[in-house]
């Protein structure tokens, strides 16, 4: 990970993480993009980013920008051995403020700024990033563009009740309890969350628990990770990891952990749901 200043305070409600990366994998291959509670926006520097849903070559998407909505399946990021660029993790509120659309519009999709209906400054960002010479300049370009988009956003944000519900779901609260806290029936809450995020409260909670486990994996014993994250036992954690990551926790630790442990603050950071 390239050393970088923290996300500016004005952007914090919309951007969980802004990671500048320069990674040498040693050889061409594929690494996993795992589900989380934020949308992923990647700006590669050297080559177009090639991404597909894990195990599905028919979904391969190649572009100079990459947008992935909330999803409950692993993505496969294809590389030639080296990768450089900037990756953003956007909150549900950030989808509206930065992309100009609710997160639900991108749920389960792999797309880019040329295909999606997004503000013009976002379409121009990749070119401006390539014109920058240093990492400091690149990060500044990204931050200025995001600040401009946030300041000029004129549409409504997510309902406050939805934001509170997502925050509670991220922390493991039961869906029924969350509905009662925000003053809605469980069915009404499910409709509002699905309309905003593209996933149900239960699906969002599942991914949030997985994200929490991901942040602890490799730093705590598996049994402890399972207990701290609300899984019934280690076997339950392993089953969920296989379903959401496409591999076992031990396989991910062996193949991926050395490359992501220092460049993935979003893995254990809450977002606004944070």
UniProtKB/TrEMBL annotation:
InterPro entries: AraC_XylS_family_regulators (IPR050204), Homeodomain-like_sf (IPR009057), HTH_AraC (IPR018060), HTH_AraC-typ_CS (IPR018062)
Key words, A-Z: DNA-binding, Transcription, Transcription regulation
SMART domains in UniProt: HTH_ARAC (SM00342)
Location of the HTH araC/xylS-type domain: 159-255
Keyword rRNA-binding: no
Coiled-coil regions listed in the entry: none
Keyword Transcription regulation (UniProt): yes
Name recorded for this polypeptide: Helix-turn-helix transcriptional regulator
Organism per entry: Nocardioides bizhenqiangii
């Amino acid at each position: 990970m390239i050393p970088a200043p923290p996300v500016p305070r004005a952007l914090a409600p919309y951007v969980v993480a802004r990671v500048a990366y320069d990674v040498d994998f040693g050889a061409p291959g594929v690494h996993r993009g795992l589900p989380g509670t934020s949308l992923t926006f990647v700006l590669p520097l050297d080559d177009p980013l090639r991404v597909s849903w894990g195990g599905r070559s028919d979904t391969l998407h190649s572009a100079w920008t990459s947008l992935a909505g909330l999803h409950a399946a692993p993505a496969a990021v294809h590389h030639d051995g080296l990768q450089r660029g900037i990756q953003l993790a956007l909150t549900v509120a950030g989808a509206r403020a930065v992309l100009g659309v609710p997160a639900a519009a991108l749920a389960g999709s792999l797309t880019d700024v040329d295909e999606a209906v997004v503000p013009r400054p976002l379409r121009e960002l990749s070119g401006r990033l390539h014109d920058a010479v240093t990492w400091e300049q690149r990060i500044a370009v990204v931050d200025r563009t995001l600040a401009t988009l946030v300041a000029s956003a004129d549409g409504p944000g997510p309902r406050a009740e939805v934001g509170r519900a997502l925050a509670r779901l991220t922390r493991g609260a039961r869906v029924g309890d969350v509905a009662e806290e925000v003053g809605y029936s469980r069915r009404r809450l499910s409709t509002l969350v699905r309309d905003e995020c593209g996933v149900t409260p239960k699906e969002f909670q599942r991914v949030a628990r997985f994200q929490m486990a991901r942040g602890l994996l490799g730093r705590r014993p598996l049994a402890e990770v399972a207990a701290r994250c609300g899984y019934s036992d280690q076997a339950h954690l392993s089953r969920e990891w296989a379903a959401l990551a496409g591999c076992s926790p031990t396989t991910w630790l062996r193949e991926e952990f050395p490359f992501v442990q220092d460049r993935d603050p979003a893995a254990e950071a809450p977002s606004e749901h944070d």
